[in-house]
Amino acid sequence: MFFPLVFLALGPIAFENGVAASSSIIHSDHVVHEIRALEPFDWSISHQPRAHKRLPLRIGLSQRNVENLESMLMAVSHPDSPNYGKHWTPQQVMDTFAPSEESAQNVIAWLKDAGFSPEKIRISANKGWIQVDTTVAEAEDLLKTEYHVYTHPCHNYSVPAAIQEHVELIRPTVHFTHRPSLKSEAKFKRAGILGKPSPGTGPITSSIDTLPVPPGLIECAQMMTPGCLRALYNVPQFNPLAMDKNSYGIVEFTPQAFLADDLDLFFSTFSPNVVGARPQIVLVDGAVVQNTSQGSDFNGESDLDLEYAMALTYPQNVTLLQTGDLVEGAGFDNWLDAVDGSFCTFDGGDDPFQDGIYPDTLPGGFDGPESCGIVAPPLVVSVSYGEQEWQITSSSATRQCNEYGKLGLMGTTILYSSGDNGVAGLGGQCLDSSARPVSSGGTRFNPQFPASCPFVTSVGATQMNPNSTIVDPEAACETHIFSGGGFSDIFSMPDYQKSAVSSYLTNDPPPYTSSQFNTSGSRAYPDLSANGANYVAGVNGQLMLEFGTSAATPVVGSFITMINDARLAAGKGPVGFINPAIYSDAFKDGFNDITEGSNPGCMLSLYLIDTVGFIATDGWDPVTGVGTPNVSKLISLFLALP
């Protein structure tokens, strides 16, 4: 399920207005450092802020060794590497990527030369960020730009050429804030016209009128259950042997929250031994598992994620990373802070123009300290949320993506759903010739993030065809949702997938040109898939059918948790970043190749699709990745590694 993320700038709760810099005359000793070609869809300039308005700038220093991150990650993740499984400690990660003293000194010297006194300049504990307290007027002079208040940041800004190599990005400037919205459109809709995408996002729900649900496997094509998934993906009986060493985390963003009665309704029907079990809850940044607001929009996603994760892995504990308070909410960086204290951008806090900032000074907001490194990173983390690449600058996306890579170095598997709108974005939107999303008539495909980050595992969706059985091949999901997939406009293609993607482009070239997708050799996704259709879930006191890559993602996370248990029980380490392994020839037998279906997208008009998207075919494809897992085979393959 992909939540539309609200843009914020110059104030963590500015749902109506945001402040950002726009282009102005660039002085001769300055060079453009970041640029945004267009304001995001439906945002426009309102007015200029007052010159004396306080504007605390955060300057992200260039990190050392990030150019080697992929090769470092491959060394501990590729099955042919002699260092496979030799994951790093958090201290090793921090020491390796910390910005150099030279970068910090040069930036501080630049700020002092610009007239800022030393007491206005502070450096973060992890030495990755410098904060300088400025006014709007001072920031405009420093960056040779202009700031504007936007309704409903900046085209570009500049820094001296001599310090450009030391600065990764500066906020607030060209970045609009993205986080799960508290006021977004409905995410759960009654099942509508078969084969047509919802104008909203998944998972989509509908009531089940034919209860009781059959206890066997005869009707799995109509009602997907934990038993169906075990049979479909050759899942052995799970009796965990390393529960004390193993861990599995599910990320949810407040106000989305599970209801205990919904869990027990589901468990009593499909997993009676799990009735009464609850996730281990970690509250991030004043989060609450709220039950005041109830309904599919508020409970459906969390109910679905936890019901299947817990049913499949019980008695292994599942950790719920509930993120953000009810007033301000949170972004992706907030949960990253919670599991990796070194990621906290400033004195244990986040960038106020991208994430929730705590303590929250708003009435009723969480006034406690920022949740920074409060829990060890789970060995598997499943996230059923996302945004679109056009919503974020390449610098900001790259910085966040690198953090996922660092978690991989430490042995954590990060899973993100690939989206429910095929090659399109939220609401079936594709991009026009100016890379702007349009509700209809867009022809350029709309890649998703963080699914497109090369250091996460992107999960697409399949389905059982009508009237088929669990022994019949699946197809790409085309019931109510379409498996998100395509090619990134930000990230280059990682080495681990070059052979598979090259084979696809050579043997089954898509009937599109560079005007539809990035043909220059970019990161392709998804990486793998699992069933995403007709999930039975307990939601608000009744059993519902749900659809979405958000259903597939926690299921894959459950399977990886089983694999980790087997390795840990054998005295080995977790699998960590799995992409180099699953793309390797040695792991081909561990997946069921999906060769039927496609992922249409781009709305010509309401419910009228303008393109068939990509086609599922032999081997990897940008619809279902390398296929769906055969869990028993994958356990054996991963157990054979060091």
Automatic annotation (TrEMBL):
Signal peptide limits: 1-21
Record-annotated active site: 301, 305, 550
Compartments (UniProt record): Secreted, Extracellular space
GO molecular function, one term: serine-type endopeptidase activity
Gene3D superfamilies associated with the record: Peptidase S8/S53 domain
EC number: 3.4.14.10
InterPro entries, sorted: Peptidase_S8/S53_dom, Peptidase_S8/S53_dom_sf, S53_propep, Sedolisin_dom, Tripeptidyl-peptidase_I
Note accompanying the cofactor annotation: Binds 1 Ca(2+) ion per subunit.
Binding positions (Ca(2+)): 593-594, 619, 621
Cofactor: Ca(2+)
A Pfam family matched in the record: Peptidase_S8
Domain of life: Eukaryota
SUPFAM superfamilies associated with the record: Protease propeptides/inhibitors (SSF54897), Subtilisin-like (SSF52743)
Keyword Signal tagged: yes
Function text: Secreted tripeptidyl-peptidase which degrades proteins at acidic pHs and is involved in virulence.
Protein name according to UniProt: tripeptidyl-peptidase II
